């Protein structure tokens, strides 16, 4: 349990920078400009730029709006901004599986991704 005055594991600045990088990556992958996203969020371009650079934090409401715009789940921002490398995390999940089971997991993920990308 944390004592009063004891530092948190991650500073707010570090968390903001991780979320900002993840948001910028998702924005670029979705093909949006900062101007388009800031208009969608109803904030100024500079305010959105500060979020992407990690200078300002992002509210939960804005994360949901971004997830909707980018076509991903809101949890994506938390997973991708986590300090543990995604590849390491995935490797550890698959480590105890046989080759056949790993291939099955890949097949399931591919089919799920295709279904989620399909127009609704």
What would you say about this model in short?
InterPro entries: Cro/C1-type_HTH, Lambda_DNA-bd_dom_sf. This protein has 120 residues and is mainly alpha-helical.
Structure, explained:
It is built from seven helices and no strands. The model has no long low-confidence stretch (mean pLDDT 86). It has two domains: 9-83, lambda repressor-like DNA-binding domains (434 Repressor (Amino-terminal Domain), Orthogonal Bundle), CATH 1.10.260.40; 85-120. The protein is flat, with a radius of gyration of 17 Å. With 120 residues, it is mainly α.
Explain the layout of strands and helices.
Elements: H1 12-30, H2 34-41, H3 45-52, H4 60-70, H5 75-81, H6 86-94, H7 99-117
Q: CATH homologous superfamily of the largest domain? A: lambda repressor-like DNA-binding domains
* Global morphology: flat
- CATH topology of the largest domain, anyone? 434 Repressor (Amino-terminal Domain)
The assigned structural class equals mainly alpha
Overall pLDDT metric: 86
Largest sheet: none
Q: First CA to last CA: what distance? A: 46 Å
Unreliable residue stretches: none
- From the alpha-carbon coordinates, what is the Rg to the nearest angstrom? 17 Å
CATH class value of the largest domain: Mainly Alpha
Domain HTH cro/C1-type: 23-77
Pfam families: HTH_3
Organism: Pelomonas aquatica
Protein name: XRE family transcriptional regulator
